[in-house]
Amino acid sequence: MKKLTVILLLFVSTNIIGQNNGSFVIGCDESFFVMYRDTIFSFPIPDRFYIAFEGGFDDTLEVYLNGVLISKEFYKTNPVLGTTGGKLFLKNKKNAISNILLIKNTSRNHCLEFSIDTRFRIIYIDFEEDKWGVFYSNKFTIYE
Length: 144
Fold this sequence. Notes:
By secondary structure, the chain is mainly beta. It has a single domain (25-137), classed as Immunoglobulin-like (Sandwich). The chain is 12% helix and 45% strand. The chain contains 1 helix and 10 strands. Strand 7 (100-105) and strand 8 (110-115) form a beta hairpin.
C-alpha cells in the first residue's frame, strides 16, 4: 500500500510540475524552458499548429513531426527584430497518441524534443545562449 501511495504521489507531482512553467528534460538529453501565455483561443485554423522560430538562430534546423522530417531550412535571427521570421504550419495528427516535435540544430549539434500541448496552436521556439525556449500561445506576436 505504501508503494502505491508513493507511486501515485510521484505521478501527481510530475503532472503538476509538467503543466506549469519550468525547465524540463523530455528528449535529446537537453533541458528547455516552457512558458504558457494567451490562453484565449484566437487561432483561426483548429487542426493546425504554427511554429515560429524566434531569436538565437544562425543555423540549419531539421524539424520532425512524429519521426517524419517535415523541414530542413537555414534560419538567421534578424538583429533588429530579434526573430528569424521563420515559420511552419503543421497539421495536427488526430490519430496519433501524441504529436512529438523534434528539432535538430545541425550547425551546433543540439536538439529539442517535446510533445506538443494541443491546447495551444502557436509555438514560439528560441535558442538563446545555447538554451532552448518553448513558448505556447494562442495569439500571434506582432513585431514593429
